[in-house]
């Protein structure tokens, strides 16, 4: 994997494995698509056509899943490497933030922990009314906690 540091390679492996929910060595193309869409910003203006092209380049056999060998082969190509690296790096940063907030290490952060995170990031006080609206959008099951998937959705809106 020429031109990638050991740190980048390890980060890619860790995030690939995190997306591989059932441990079969594959990730769904829709998961990579979701990850790429989450990374869209003013600097990174990926169209749906761009995302579809990237997914097609990664899923060579058009199976709807990306095997490890397909992923590693595609990531060595300069073509989409920077875009995918950025998406994986962003996910890794969010995972680290989640781990810091998950004080009891139970895989969820409470409303209060999330409120502290929002206040720290925005450097402003978040009112209870604002938190009610935020939690309504970010906590679809209404349990008052955010798991990692809910948190990553909240942080990439």
What overall geometry do the principal axes of the alpha carbons give? elongated
Q: What is the fold-level CATH name, i.e. the topology of the largest domain? A: Recoverin, domain 1
CATH class of the largest domain: Mainly Alpha
Q: Please identify, by name, the CATH architecture of the largest domain.
A: Orthogonal Bundle
At a glance:
With about 160 residues, this protein is mainly α. The chain has helices at about 5-20, 30-40, 50-60, 70-75, 80-100, 110-120, 130-140, 150-155; strands spanning about 25-30, 65, 110, 145.
Key phrases:
Recoverin, domain 1, two-stranded antiparallel ribbon, 8 helices, single chain, elongated, 157 residues, mainly alpha, 63% helix
Kindly describe this structure.
α1 packs across α5 (78-101). The two termini are 32 Å apart. The model has no long low-confidence stretch (mean pLDDT 82). The longest helix is centred in the middle third of the chain and has 24 residues, at 78-101. The chain is mostly helical and 157 residues long. The protein folds into two domains: 6-94, Recoverin, domain 1; 102-155, Recoverin, domain 1 (Orthogonal Bundle). The chain is 63% helix and 8% strand. It has helices at residues 6-19, 29-38, 48-58, 68-76, 78-101, 111-122, 128-138, 148-155, and strands at 26-28, 65-67, 108-110, 145-147.
């Amino acid at each position: 994997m020429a031109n990638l540091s050991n740190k980048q390679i390890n980060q890619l492996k860790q995030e690939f494995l995190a997306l591989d929910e059932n441990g079969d060595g594959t990730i769904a193309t829709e998961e990579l698509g979701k990850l790429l869409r989450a990374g869209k910003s003013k600097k990174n203006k990926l169209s749906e056509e761009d995302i579809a092209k990237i997914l097609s380049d990664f899923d060579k056999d058009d199976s709807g899943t990306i095997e490890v060998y397909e992923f590693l082969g595609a990531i060595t190509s300069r073509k989409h490497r920077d875009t995918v690296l950025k998406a994986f790096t962003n996910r890794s940063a969010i995972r680290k933030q989640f781990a810091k907030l998950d004080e009891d290490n139970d895989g969820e952060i409470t409303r209060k922990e999330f409120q502290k995170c929002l206040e720290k990031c925005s450097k402003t006080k978040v009112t209870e009314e604002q938190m009610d609206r935020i939690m309504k959008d970010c906590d679809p099951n209404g349990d008052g906690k955010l798991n990692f998937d809910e948190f990553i959705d909240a942080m990439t809106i």
